[in-house]
Amino acid sequence: MSDAAIAIEALRFAWPGHPPALDIDSFTMARGERLFLRGPSGSGKSTLLGLIAGVLQPAAGRIEVLGRDMSALSAAARDRVRADHLGVIFQMFNLVPYLSVTGNVTLPLLFSPVRRKTVGDDAEGEARRLLDRLGLSDPGLLNRRVSDLSVGQQQRVAAARALIGGPDIVIADEPTSALDSDARDRFIELLSEEAARTGAALLFVSHDRSLASHFSRAVDLGEINHAQVAA
Amino acid sequence: MRALLSLAWKSLLNRKGSVLLTLFAVALSVALFVGVDKARTGAREGFGNTISGTDLIIGAPTGSINLLLYSVFRMGNATAEISWPTYEKLAARDDIAWTVPISLGDSHRGFRVLGTNHSYFEHYKYGHNEPLRMAEGKEFDDLFDAVIGADVARELGYTVGTEIVLSHGLGSDFGSGHENRPFRVSGILAPTGTPVDRTVHVSLEAITAIHVGWESGAKNPMSDSISTETIRSFNLTPKSITAVFAGLRQKGTILRTRREINTNKGEPLMAIIPGQALAELWSVTAMAERALMAVSIFVIAVGVVSILTSILTSLNERRREMSILRAVGARPGHIFGLLTLEAGLIGFFGASLGIVIVHVLIAIAGPLVSERYGISLGGTGPGLFDLGVLGAVTLASLLAGAVPAWAAFRRSLADGLSVRL
């Protein structure tokens, strides 16, 4: 299991006072893999991502991220794994409103010495380079407030933020639901290209099964999650 | 830490409106506290500087604070006087180096009139043993000469040579008794920031002269028929005086001299040490001071609570922001630190602004307050006390910020990577 980017075994999780949200016997994602995880709203996708990121703790079972058993690590060590090795993209409104475009992209470097070291001294240069590759090449954009950007531009900034410092795993939680189909396809294409370039595994989560064709493998959460979750 | 500080700073700038209001609330509360302290300290120093170099103040038996108030601060009245022969005996004591007899009771347009002799200008000291200095003119020479304090000259527009009329008692009305004996301003004293500035000084003989015809306590209508020239030929040695300032030959004898005067055989007397009486005066006012300071501290507490409130009320709308920070690698400690630092920054800049406001006000109004009320507000710039207030308010703000920080910390753990609103 140590070769996997993410490996889950006999995972059980329930929110306090609620029935089990997740009951997964086995799930594996290889390093560098581009995996599509489909599930309807309320199926526990975000909860699963919280567990993988080490923000939540399972009631039972084992979650390995890059060979580290997250359930056995201390909270601080889980936070460190997330800061150093994971990049996360949310559905929308996922930028810090009081930071500029560059400030948002370089934000993870504030919390991760590992990613800071990877990027080197020119963090802003790296942010510009990533934004350029993701199609935001206008220098005038860099110091603008992120709230002045279109939704599509905001998602590219979020993608650049997830990719900066070369994390081993990029988690994208419904990142295209606010985009039209052209913008959505272009965004997935760019994200996949960048993840492939850095060798990062890409875990793309969405309720939209039509996106599965963009990825090397697709998994239906409903099929691997045996818990009875209200949709 | 620098990264968090930078984040906290940018977060505050993002909420400029509410942050500025909170910051002003803290600034005003700190300005009130520091201002009250400056006024308190200035008043203490001003009172303490009113008289120096005088070892004993001697008067008829009364309370020591009362004797201090009427003789030095020209507040209130003496309940009894010292006879002139008794004063002469005091002045002749071997252990007393000098004396300044003073006589109070009359006034001029609201300013107290003090009868004394030339030793007053020689021995009365204020501040750090500062002597009185003439700004214009000279000491009284003629019987009807008057030396006025700086405030009297400024407020009434008097110059050397101006004719003035004294009033019997403390009435401020014109024509209340002594208009038949006008005085001429012979000199104006330089400002001292003490009650001297608000005093009209005349000779003891002049006090006797203007009361010729007042022996029954009321003005004899016939007294106006006695010419000024006739009065000059009278023996104008006073029958009594109000109090005596005394300097000792040896400071070490002060307690013995005081005891001997207090147990004087014959006319009862009371001697007080000015510093001790001032301390006694402060012990009386200390309660009011403490109450004032307590109110100011509560006002600061309200200011600090406003920081807590403003951050607490913004927490709900910032849950997504906290989740984003967590997702990009921020630990709960970072979230806690971010909100605590925001509170600390508001407290620091609010307190700084408050201190700046007070010092700007002191720079503008300080000279006026010092000149008018003799209260030096310490306008030499921020000092250790101000730094202490700045540190204490910043610390209190950091502690207050810990409350919303703890709430955000707990929520950031519960919310996971995406907010469940």
What characteristics describe this protein?
heterodimer; A: 231 residues; alpha/beta; Rossmann fold; five-stranded parallel β-sheet; four-stranded antiparallel β-sheet; 35% helix; B: 421 residues; alpha+beta; 2 domains; ten-stranded mixed β-sheet; two-stranded antiparallel ribbon; 15% strand
Task: Give a description of the structure.
- The complex is a heterodimer of chains A (231) and B (421).
- Chain A is of the alpha/beta class.
- Chain A has a single domain, classed as 3-Layer(aba) Sandwich (Rossmann fold).
- Chain A has 9 helices and 9 strands.
- Chain A has helices spanning 45-52, 75-85, 101-105, 107-111, 113-119, 123-133, 151-163, 181-198, 221-224; strands spanning 4-14, 20-30, 34-38, 60-65, 68-69, 86-89, 169-173, 201-206, 217-220.
- A 5-stranded parallel β-sheet of chain A has the order 6-7-8-3-9, sandwiched between helices. A 4-stranded antiparallel β-sheet of chain A has the order 2-1-4-5, with helices on one face.
- In chain A, helix 8 links the parallel strand 7 and strand 8 (201-206).
- In chain A, helix 7 packs parallel to helix 8.
- The longest helix of chain A has 18 residues, at 181-198.
- The radius of gyration of chain A is 17 Å and the shape is globular.
- The relative contact order of chain A is 0.22.
- The mean pLDDT of chain A is 87.
- Chain B has 421 residues and is α+β, with helices and mostly antiparallel strands.
- Chain B folds into 2 domains: 2-47 and 286-415, no CATH class; 56-272, no CATH class.
- Chain B contains 13 helices and 14 strands.
- Chain B has helices at residues 2-14, 16-48, 64-72, 84-91, 119-123, 150-156, 204-210, 228-232, 254-262, 274-314, 319-327, 332-373, 384-415; strands spanning 56-59, 82-83, 96-108, 111-116, 125-126, 130-131, 134-137, 145-148, 163-164, 183-189, 199-203, 240-241, 243-248, 270-272.
- In chain B, strands 1, 3, 4, 7, 8, 9, 10, 11, 13 and 14 form a 10-stranded mixed β-sheet that branches. Chain B has a two-stranded antiparallel ribbon with strand order 2-12.
- In chain B, helix 10 runs antiparallel to helix 12 (332-373) and helix 11 crosses helix 13.
- The radius of gyration of chain B is 31 Å and the shape is elongated.
